[in-house]
Design goal:
Length: 118
């Protein structure tokens, strides 16, 4: 079973930057689309950024121009570069692997907390 391990969360001031990492325990990017979700207190989990196996990206409107999703195939790692952070970006961020083939399992990481506060 492939596992996802996130890192890089923490406390940052408004306007600051963080880079989240999601390390997969195997080479899955050719058969999984990768995504970063977040869940703020009292809110539903939402998809923030997605990266298809073909390399296409999409973002929710509130992070466009500030966040960038990318991957390093050699390291089996997906990143979320977050710039110009705002207090409303505060949430637990989860890495997700969505399989191209439905007989494969969907995979979630354990989450990493991002707090944007002065």
């Amino acid at each position: 079973q492939v596992q996802l391990v996130e890192s890089g969360g923490g406390l940052v001031q408004p306007g600051g930057s963080l880079r989240l990492s999601c390390a997969a325990s195997g080479s899955i990017f050719s058969i999984y689309a990768m995504g970063w979700y977040r869940q703020a207190p009292g809110k539903q989990r939402e998809l923030v950024a997605a990266l298809t196996s073909g390399g296409s990206t999409k973002y929710i409107d509130s992070v466009k121009g500030r966040f960038t999703i990318s991957r390093d195939n050699a390291k089996n790692t997906v990143y979320l570069q977050m710039n110009s952070l705002k207090p409303e970006d505060t949430a637990v961020y989860y890495c997700n692997a969505d399989p191209l083939h439905k007989w494969l399992p969907e995979i979630w990481g354990q989450g990493t907390l991002v707090t944007v506060s002065s």
